[in-house]
Design goal:
169 residues, mainly alpha, 2 domains, 10 helices, 0% strand, globular
Amino acid sequence: MNGILSAQMRQAGMPYKLVFGVELPRLQAIAAEFPCNRELAQALWNENIRECKILASLLMPHDEMCPEIADIWVDEMPTAEIAQICTMHLLSQEAWSAELAFQWIATNDTMRQLCGFLILARMLQQGAELNERAELELRDQAEALLDKSNLHLKKAIQATLGRLNQQKL
């Protein structure tokens, strides 16, 4: 436990039952000691504890994650931090990720939009290319949301557009 970080997170109003303040690299080291396991990941996800949610995204087997579970997890995401970690380590790695991301950015739900843009940014960073229709849809959604978004969503939109523009160079 990192008592200082834990206290700061509680003071900042983190919406968890419990916060240990353990940093991501330490959680990644802990996760590396265990085999990926859907039952364990699901049990960890169901806990309202920051570190459990992070470990869940690290321990969920990629081949057992599906769009239906992703939808449930996104509905239960408590913070942008969890969204960033979950999309980076799990949700952007799936064959169905882009399709789901486009569905999410077209909703009125801020967390779904955030996750959608984070997935697309990660995929673009890893070299994925969008066809013309997908690129136009992405730009249209980004333009519609950019001015009325919260800080986390604005940053995700800007990162996605930045990566898309880098590909065009």
